[in-house]
């Protein structure tokens, strides 16, 4: 939060906080709809963790999709009235849909793979998709930083993403 406050675009910090809160609310509302008890909510460097009893693959996919779904709704609702809010929600939507575990896209992909493949095969594919995605993001961050010369923020963010999710790949 501190890094975003310092390095983020001007006037986007409050929309960012509201969007992150709405994203997590999307997860919580879906859990409530599915009658799943929330044991705890914990903030970490890479985001928030909502602890529950084990979920079925279908439930996990629905819960994972509901956070980005909330960002999509907010993006569509605010694109005319508050463009910075729409941009922040678009970025959060795209970021969370990356197929990197433990992001929402990675969780959904893990469930889909586990539904149709053996556990070792699913884990191997998820690991390779995660590695390729992280390497691609690092390449894009370097390209934006050095070729397009947008400053060091894209490179810093791609490196942070790699290390904040390193325990899962």
Side by side, the strands of the main sheet go: 1-2
What helical percentage do the residues reach? Answer: 55-70%
- The computed structural class is mainly alpha
Percent of residues in beta strands: 5-15%
Low-confidence stretches: none
Mean pLDDT equals 84
- Number of strand segments: 2
Broad shape: globular
Structure annotation, total helices: 7
Distance between the termini: 24 Å
Radius of gyration: 17 Å
Give the SSE order as H and E letters: HHEEHHHHH
Q: Please give the largest β-sheet.
A: 2 strands, antiparallel
The gist of it:
Helix content is 70%, strand content 8%. It has 169 residues and is mainly α.
Provide an overview of this structure:
α3 runs antiparallel to α4. The model has no long low-confidence stretch (mean pLDDT 84). The longest helix has 30 residues, at 119-148. It is globular and about 45 Å long. The relative contact order is 0.10. It has a two-stranded antiparallel ribbon. The chain has 169 residues and is mainly alpha-helical. The protein has 7 helices and 2 strands.
Please supply descriptive tags for the structure shown above.
mainly alpha; two-stranded antiparallel sheet; 2 strands; 70% helix
Topology:
Layout: H1 2-7, H2 13-33, E1 38-44, E2 47-52, H3 57-78, H4 83-96, H5 104-116, H6 119-148, H7 153-164
């Amino acid at each position: 939060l501190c890094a975003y406050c310092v390095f983020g675009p001007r006037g986007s910090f409050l929309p960012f906080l509201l969007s992150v809160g709405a994203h997590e609310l999307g997860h919580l509302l879906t859990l409530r709809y599915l009658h799943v008890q929330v044991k705890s909510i914990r903030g970490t460097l890479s985001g928030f963790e909502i602890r529950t009893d084990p979920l079925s693959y279908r439930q996990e996919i629905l819960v994972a999709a509901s956070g980005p779904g909330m960002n999509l709704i907010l993006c569509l609702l605010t694109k005319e009235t508050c463009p910075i809010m729409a941009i922040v929600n678009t970025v959060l939507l795209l970021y969370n849909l990356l197929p990197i575990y433990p992001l929402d896209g990675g969780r959904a992909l893990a469930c889909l793979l586990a539904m149709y493949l053996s556990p070792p095969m699913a884990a191997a594919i998820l690991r390779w998709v995660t590695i390729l995605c992280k390497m691609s993001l690092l390449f894009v961050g370097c390209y934006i930083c050095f070729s397009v010369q947008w400053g060091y923020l894209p490179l810093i963010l791609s490196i942070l993403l790699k290390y904040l999710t390193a325990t899962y790949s």
